[in-house]
Amino acid sequence: MTTHDLPRGMIRASGAIGTHEGYMPGFGNDFETEALPGALPQGQNSPQKCNYGLYAEQLSGTAFTAPRGQNERTWCYRIRPSVHHTGRFSPIEVPHWKTAPNVVPNVTSLGQYRWDPIPMPESDLTWITGMRTMTTAGDVNIQVGMASHVYLVTRSMEDEYFFSADSELLVVPQEGRLRFATELGIIDLEPKEIAIIPRGLVYRVEVLEGPARGFVCENYGQKFDLPHRGPIGANCLANPRDFKCPVAAFEDREVPSRVVIKWCGQFHESHIGHSPLDVVAWHGNYCAYKYDLRTYSPVGAILFDHPDPSIFTVLTAPSGQEGTANIDFVLFRERWMVAEHSFRPPWYHKNIMSELMGNIYGQYDAKPRGFAPGGISLHNCMLPHGPDRDAFEGASNAELKPHKLENTMSFMFETRFPQHLTEWAAREAPMQPEYVEVWNQLQKKFDGTPGVK
Ligand SMILES: O=C(O)Cc1cc(O)ccc1O
Ligand SMILES: [Fe+2]
């Protein structure tokens, strides 16, 4: 039985409350799921012999001794142990997938940058060969920092699998539909959804509708978590039940296969004789999941002023310093603007955090033109930015009646570490050389006389 020919409705998930279309709801839950009846041991993790002749194996996403609230691990019951899914490794080149530290001589990251949508590829590109790194930050060797990528995918991986020992991947599709066939089950992903693929999980990416383009935040550090809501209370922003984790699905397929591993920025391949997606049952809280961005309930200003964008945080990956994230994933989506006597768009600012933004669809309020769907901008550590002239003049003179921002979905990967451009981002991606000029036409209005100008 393979995940290809397994009807989705036939996938069994026992013990999962509210199992829905092959997914189980809830963020950080302790899930249990089995694709064959009785495959999951009850009452213990390591029976002397497992049902169906399966091997028991633990996948640890945190240190064994991590505090209970953060401790994540999953027990897998699989046809072969993972040591059979990785043989001898030989190095391979994946030239466009870069890892921090990657400070390129003669490439300056000091500046405000913006790119047109990266053109859709005409060549044959998979999830691995189609990954294009834009920026890197921090250092993978000490498990801090991140990288931002654009993916351009036209071809499914066939008998080919991948895992990253370096990172958890946050995937933000912008066009096309992808299937992530993972050790723990299947995630289908399309624009307006995101997925998290945890460190160490083996998967294959198939194109359901191509070409596919999107953004990836590669998190070298502590896992993404839900932000605390503070005085907001128990609801709104991203609600835990809207996160969906796949039910178990396995492949028993003996064909020559290739496994690619990313480890400390290096890529290696290994050849094996079967599919590694052979987990028949699993239980635990270390898993892949997806989330529909349309279920994000923004909370904002309902009387005056423009709050910090942290109110729109979907997920946050801590850095060890309280309140200072390794990465915040922030969503700017449709919402009502009602603030009185206020300049409603983002203010002008300089930020110790580095802000990489991507447009999923529509128009972003601070940049009515030039920041197109599929486009990217980077406002690095302490580099000033804010609304362009049209946005400033428009918002300064607008009648302040309730106004709905429609057809808009952009996001920000915000990190405490400066982001360094890759050579590809600086020299090959469609950078807009004239971007800084969007602020040139802002007029000096001050003339020494009092009064609103
Ligand atoms: O720079 C940006 O456009 C992102 C942003 C949005 C906002 O509402 C406030 C601050 C901020 O950095
Ligand atoms: Fe900003």
From TrEMBL:
<dbReference type="Pfam" id="PF20510">
    <property type="entry name" value="HgmA_N"/>
</dbReference>
<dbReference type="InterPro" id="IPR046452">
    <property type="entry name" value="HgmA_N"/>
</dbReference>
<keyword id="KW-0560">Oxidoreductase</keyword>
<dbReference type="GO" id="GO:0004411">
    <property type="term" value="F:homogentisate 1,2-dioxygenase activity"/>
</dbReference>
<comment type="similarity">
    <text>Belongs to the homogentisate dioxygenase family.</text>
</comment>
<dbReference type="Pfam" id="PF04209">
    <property type="entry name" value="HgmA_C"/>
</dbReference>
<keyword id="KW-0223">Dioxygenase</keyword>
<dbReference type="InterPro" id="IPR005708">
    <property type="entry name" value="Homogentis_dOase"/>
</dbReference>
<dbReference type="InterPro" id="IPR046451">
    <property type="entry name" value="HgmA_C"/>
</dbReference>
<feature type="domain" description="Homogentisate 1,2-dioxygenase N-terminal">
    <location>
        <begin position="23"/>
        <end position="293"/>
    </location>
</feature>
<feature type="domain" description="Homogentisate 1,2-dioxygenase C-terminal">
    <location>
        <begin position="295"/>
        <end position="446"/>
    </location>
</feature>
<dbReference type="InterPro" id="IPR014710">
    <property type="entry name" value="RmlC-like_jellyroll"/>
</dbReference>
<protein>
    <recommendedName>
        <fullName>Homogentisate 1,2-dioxygenase</fullName>
        <ecNumber>1.13.11.5</ecNumber>
    </recommendedName>
</protein>
<dbReference type="InterPro" id="IPR011051">
    <property type="entry name" value="RmlC_Cupin_sf"/>
</dbReference>
<keyword id="KW-0479">Metal-binding</keyword>
<keyword id="KW-0408">Iron</keyword>
